[in-house]
Design a protein that fits this description.
The chain is 33% helix and 36% strand. The protein is of the alpha+beta class. It has one domain: 2-Layer Sandwich (Nucleotidyltransferase, domain 5), CATH 3.30.420.10. Strands 3-2-1-4 form a four-stranded mixed sheet.
Amino acid sequence: MWVSDTTYVMVNKTFYYICVMIDLFSRKVISYEVSTYNNTTQSKEAFKQAFQERDRPQNLIFHSDQGSQYVSYEFVNIFRKTK
């Protein structure tokens, strides 16, 4: 089971958004993306990176806070293609 969320931090008066994917079994960060925008592309790239790094796991359970970037057509379509 993987979980994901996005948070932000201000550095030198600029906000940076960090999307993190965590494997709950190992309790390790398996991927992350940093951007000046909180958007679907950031979440999608973090997911694709984790999926490749973990050798395309089958029967993956994915949990998020259901924020707009995770329920967007773009993200859901990427997730469905992995099955």
